[in-house]
Specification:
Blueprint lengths: L3 E5 L9 H11 L4 E5 L3 H13 L4 E6 L1 H12 L8 E6 L16 H5 L8 E2 L2 E6 L2 E5 L2 E5 H10 L8 H11 L5 E7 L2 E13 L21 E7 L5 H8 L10 E6 L1 E5 L5 E4 L2 E5 L2 E6 L4 E2 L2
Parallel strand pairs: 1-2, 1-3, 3-4, 4-17
Antiparallel strand pairs: 5-17, 6-7, 6-16, 8-10, 8-14, 9-10, 9-13, 10-11, 11-12, 13-16, 14-15
Helix pairs in contact: 2-3, 5-6
Length: 294
């Protein structure tokens, strides 16, 4: 059984004893591990590099999707003889990537998944734009979904995943549809739209089934453009929650391994719940560089 290098975001969720809780969960299960707490986002990269230098090739991220995003960026910034393995022990307000694999949203129950050697290659996306280059694991958004992240982060953490839906209504009042162009392997969508999704996983936004047709190992993104007037957005978002929105006339969908997304320079861009910057970007699927612990 692999020894795990465990990176804890001590500010994730509302559990002030998170590190002790994780240590107890791994110890009682006999899982060999070492734990490091990340004092900041910048510290994660150094902690990942320390683990690699210590000979670890299995890394567990403890936190939400944002923490996992930082760990993935740290892992893929390094050279590996063979792909490392990522495991996730969910502890943040948003842990959506693991929903695609039906991993429990509970530290102790998720720890059971680290007990054996089963793992699966997982695609990763890489974004390039004015913000530089950034890897993402679950999904990237331009437009209202990125604005929703900002609004949700202003709300009390006690709301849990409900913060994202509440944040959407606040973001809706501040977002106007604008001209968008998306090109994906010879296919093109030109619309006056209010959001563009580039999805690897199926769920985000606090459990919304935004990309029910996405697969994390098929080498393709699930790309969606949400168009139409702003008054249509509330009707579409209600269907997004259950994953029934793909037949709505305001939603355009294409798939592919490379995407060009042209949006207004002022539009926010987010990936895995982290705001990266603004404006247009490209996205590429990266394969065979990471395993995920199922």
């Amino acid at each position: 059984m692999s020894a795990w290098w465990v990176i804890v975001n001590p500010n994730a969720g509302r559990d002030r004893n998170l590190t002790e809780r994780v240590m107890a969960a791994l110890t009682v299960r006999g899982i060999d591990h070492e734990i490091r707490e990340s004092a900041s986002q910048e510290a994660v990269t150094a902690i990942v590099a320390e683990g690699r230098d210590r000979g670890f090739d299995a890394f567990a991220s403890v936190g939400g999707d944002g923490t996992a995003n930082l760990v993935v960026n740290g892992l893929l910034s390094l050279d590996w003889a063979s792909p490392p393995t990522l495991g996730i022990l969910p502890a943040g307000s948003g842990s959506d990537f693991i929903r695609t694999f039906a991993i429990p949203d509970h530290v102790e129950l998720a720890a059971d998944h680290l007990l054996d050697e089963s793992r699966s290659p997982v695609d990763v996306g890489v974004l390039s734009g004015s913000f530089g280059k950034r890897y993402f694991l679950n999904a990237a958004n331009a437009g209202i979904a990125a604005r929703t992240v900002v609004e949700a982060n202003r709300l009390p953490s006690r709301l849990g995943t409900r913060r994202y839906l509440a944040g959407f209504w606040s973001a809706l009042a501040k977002t106007e549809p604008d001209d968008v162009r998306v090109e994906c392997e010879g296919k093109e969508i030109i619309e006056k739209a209010w959001n563009v999704v580039v999805a690897n996983g199926q769920f985000f936004g606090g459990g919304m089934n935004v990309a029910p047709g996405a697969a994390t190992g098929d080498g393709r993104f699930d790309v969606q453009v949400f168009a139409g007037p702003r008054r249509e957005a509330p009707f579409v978002i209600r269907r997004v929650v259950k994953g029934t929105h793909l037949t709505h006339p305001a939603v355009r969908r294409i798939t592919g391994r490379s995407v060009i997304v042209d949006v207004p320079e002022t539009w926010l861009i987010e990936a895995d719940g982290e705001i990266l910057g603004t404006g247009s970007f490209t996205a590429e699927v990266v394969q065979d560089r990471l395993f995920f612990k199922i």
